[in-house]
Each structure stands twice: as C-alpha cells, then as structure tokens.
Amino acid sequence: MGIDCMSDAQAATTEHYDTIIVGAGISGIGSAYHLQHQCPDRSFLILEGLESFSGTWLTHKYPGIRSDSDLYTFGYRFKPWTGTPIATAKEILKYIGEVIEENHLGPHIRYQHWINTASWSSEDQLWTIRCERRDTSETVVLTCNFLWMCQGYYRHSEGYTPDWEGMDDFEGEIVHPQTWPEDLDYKGKRVVVIGSGATTATIVPAIAGDCEHVTVVQRSPTYFIPGRNENPLADQLRLLEIDEHWIHEIVRRQVLYFQNEFTRHCEEQPEAAKEELIRGVRQYLPEDYDMDTHFTPKYRPWQQRVAFVPDGDIFKGISEGKAGMVTDEIDRFTPAGILLKSGMELEADIILTATGFNLCVLGDIEFSVDGKPIDFSNTVTYRGMMFTGVPNMVWIFGYFRASWTLRVDLIGDFVCRLLNHMRDKGVRSVVPVLRPEDQDMPRLNWIDPDNFNPNYLLRSMDLLPKRGTSREWQHTQDYWREKDEFPKIDLDDQVFKYG
Ligand SMILES: Cc1cc2nc3c(=O)[nH]c(=O)nc-3n(C[C@H](O)[C@H](O)[C@H](O)COP(=O)(O)OP(=O)(O)OC[C@H]3O[C@@H](n4cnc5c(N)ncnc54)[C@H](O)[C@@H]3O)c2cc1C
C-alpha cells in the first residue's frame, strides 16, 4: 500500500516528535535553540527541504550577497555578533553553523526532506507530516503534536519575473538573481538590471568593475540609507576589552533605539524624513545629478523596506560612470535588449531581473484539519503567528522595519511558554478563537498597504490570512511594543481554546 493511502492510525505508528520545526533557516535554527533551552523535556526535529542550513543565505548566490540590516539585531539575542554590522552570506552561514554546532542541533536536522502535506487529526490530536526526500524520492511520514513553521515567506525554487513581451526574442541571457548560475560570465558585458531594491544595490557594485557597463532600469525610485559599515560604539567597547556578550546587548539596544526613533520620525514627519534620506544619497553623487528623476521615491519612507548601502558603494559606481540609472517603464524585450516606453532602447548581453520574490504561504504545504483543506485566506491571524481554526501551529513571520530575527526570539519565548503551560495544564492542543467581542470585527488584509506595501506582498495579499482591527489580531510590525506585550500575553485568555 502506498504511503499516501495510509490511515492516520497507521501513520501514528511512524516516527513521532513533540515538535517539528519546518525549515533550517535563521528562524528554524533560532526556534530550535529556544525549544532546547526552554522546553528541554520535549523531543523535536527540524525538517529542511534544501541540502543544508540557513535558507535565504544558502539559496542566494549572486555576487556581493549580504544582509541589508545590521547583524547585531539580525543575529540572535543569545549569540554575540563580532563582525561588521552588514555581513556577507558567507559570514551569516558561518554564524548559523556555529549556533548549530555549539548547541548540538545537527542530529535534530533532516535535510532534503520537502514537506508536501500536513494534516491535523482532532481525534488523535496530532499532525501527520508527509515529506518527499529530495535525494532518494522516498516518502517519509512523521507525526508531531506541535508544528513550528519557520519556512520563511518566499518560494526558494525561483524568484518573481514579470512576463514581458518579447522575452523569448532576447538573444542574450536573462537571469534572476535568486537562481544565479555560478558560471555566469559577465566580464566585459553590457548588463541591464531591472529593479532598484536591495538586491540591485548589492549586485551592481559587486559586478560593475568587471562589466563593460551596468544600467539599472527602475519604474520608480527607492529609498536607501548609505553609511559606513561599522559601529563605532562596538569598536570602542572592544577597545575597552568589554565582554562580547555585553557588547552585543549594548549595541543591539543602541541600534534598536535609533531604528525606533527613525521609524517614528518617518511616521510623524514623512516629508522631513524623505528629504533627509534623499540628502544622504545626494552626497555620493555628482552635483548636477538628476536626483528628482532617479532617487526621489513617490511613496513615504518606510512604506517599503529601506536598504542600508555600506559605504554608498552603488552610488560611487554611478559617480564613476561604471553604472547608470534609467527611470522608465519597460515596453518590451527586443533581440538586442529592452525597449522602454519613452522609446529609448537599452542594449544588453545580460539582463538581470531583480524583480523580487514569489511570496509563498506556509511553504506551499497543503494543510488540512480533520480532512478539510485549510484556506489560510479564510483564517484570521493571532498576532501574525497563529491562525483561527488551525490547532497547535505557529508561523514565524519576522519584521520588515526591524530585523526579522528579533521576532524569532520573541516568538521563541512565547511558544516555549505556551508549550510549558499546556504541559502544566495537561492539555494537548491549543487553537486561537475569536472571542464574542471579536466576532463582528472587520476582516482586513494581512498588512495595511498604506502602512507597508512591497510589491511581493501586494501581489499575493489574497493568499494570506486576514487581520482584524485590534492588535491581538494583527501582525503589527511593531517590535518596540511587541517586545513588551508578548511576555505579558495571558495564556488563559479566551483567545486560546485548549483541548
Ligand atoms: C537577499 C536577501 C537579503 C535579506 N536581508 C535581510 C536583512 O538584512 N535583514 C532582515 O531582517 N531580513 C533580510 N531578508 C529577509 C530574510 O529572508 C529573512 O530575514 C530571513 O533570512 C528569513 O529566515 P527564515 O528562516 O524565516 O526563512 P528562509 O531563510 O526563507 O528559510 C526557510 C527555510 O525553510 C525551508 N522550507 C520552506 N518550505 C519548506 C517545505 N515545504 N519543506 C521543507 N523545508 C521548507 C526552505 O528550504 C528554507 O531553507 C533578506 C532576504 C533576502 C532574500
């Protein structure tokens, strides 16, 4: 009998864990650390579809790949970061690898296990997970009480490329940075990069010196924060031989303090913030540079993630004539390059589509509860981490305006507290439910587009869970309040229905 025909009773005889963590990226490894330290009596397993750990930092292999937020806050609160604030993928991989090694997490991870389905049985109070082994094509079935979803927010297999007319006619190479061919030869080539987000800001300075020329085509401008890739406070504390754990904590607080100030400034005085951000970029460009066209965004600061640009390197490339900006719309691809709506044609040997991600909801896993498929867009999120009608499951969706990982630590504490509470209460399941006062609450999109509106979210908003009108039913994106709210969540509130 094929494994897919197995009944839940038969599946229950398969390997069982108290908790299964999905994904061995920075979220999954951080969550495992918290589980191991705060719930030491619980068995757990991490299932990862790729061949190794660190997710985003393993998948992305384009030249220059680096973080766009500082590692004092993108790093975990429990492991000091000792390098420069902005780190390369290689450095982040090493950091996550050390966390795995120092905490003996290796034996808890199964790589090449791609999860296809997750089915909850109320009768057995268990999740049954079916995965396909990418190396052997074998089907593996496991069960667990609790599912900790750390699968990120975008599809790792391929990035998002719009469907432009004439793409098949283009005689050069079209490459999405997410699937960068290791042997891509861009030396001496004319390269056009579509899009002007953090990826472009990373790739352009990394390749410009080797290319004949790099042209960035953007539909509309983006905000950047150029600055030196250093933290003088950290350097000074190191000079004083302060313990690295202290330095990590102090610098985190400093970074978070300034980020909070900046976020508030953007909300309260958007025009002033806009002018300051543009001024920051202007200082790297020639005096007569057309800032209005290329570096004056139409949206308010922080409606999209603002990328930090170490040492203003992309702007230096523009100043030196190695790279250029074109702000226009693409009409179509041609055999020689790209025809713009203005009529200008950009000739290229290679076109890089730095056009973003395909958002994926919960790892493209088919979820069901008691045989009924779950459509997450019909659920309401509890604080952006749990979902009405979905028992024993939590999702880590980090912050955009602060480092993603800050939420890994916060949710880690919350889940461990919840699991320990359930053990003490002698219950086996928990599901968030709308209380009587929440029943008539409007169901809104996952994120308010007026507050935060990156294209990959706008494109897929209909797939995401709904949010309500009170903070409990929202992913507020507000680390500064959540850090105080989460530890105080009353686990006996009516929101949590135990079974
Ligand atoms: C180039 C780039 C730079 C970034 N820089 C920053 C930054 O500086 N600061 C910041 O805060 N954020 C940054 N981000 C956002 C970043 O993705 C997150 O901060 C963070 O790395 C996400 O970690 P994660 O573990 O949640 O998800 P991921 O890194 O996406 O890892 C998820 C893992 O889950 C696995 N998985 C998914 N579905 C399944 C399945 N069905 N079965 C088995 N395994 C599965 C994947 O294979 C993957 O390994 C960046 C993103 C990109 C793409």
Defining traits:
2 domains; FAD/NAD(P)-binding domain; 14 helices; 23 strands; globular; binds flavin-adenine dinucleotide; 499 residues; five-stranded parallel β-sheet; alpha/beta
Describe what you observe in this structure.
It is built from 14 helices and 23 strands. The chain has helices spanning 8-11, 26-38, 56-59, 71-74, 89-102, 198-208, 232-239, 244-268, 270-282, 291-295, 313-319, 405-425, 455-460, 479-485, and strands at 16-22, 44-47, 109-110, 113-121, 126-133, 139-149, 173-175, 190-194, 213-218, 224-227, 307-310, 323-327, 330-333, 337-340, 345-347, 350-353, 366-369, 372-373, 381-382, 386-387, 393-395, 430-432, 496-498. Helix 7 (232-239) packs antiparallel against helix 8 (244-268). By secondary structure, it is an alpha/beta fold. It folds into 2 domains: 15-156 and 358-498, 3-Layer(bba) Sandwich (FAD/NAD(P)-binding domain); 161-355, FAD/NAD(P)-binding domain (3-Layer(bba) Sandwich). The chain is globular and about 70 Å long. The model is unreliable at 1-12 (pLDDT under 50). The strands form 6 sheets. Strands 1, 2, 3, 4, 5, 6, 17, 18 and 21 form a 9-stranded mixed β-sheet that branches. The chain has a 5-stranded parallel β-sheet with strand order 7-16-8-9-12. 28% of the residues lie in helices and 20% in strands. Helix 6 links the parallel strand 8 (190-194) and strand 9 (213-218).
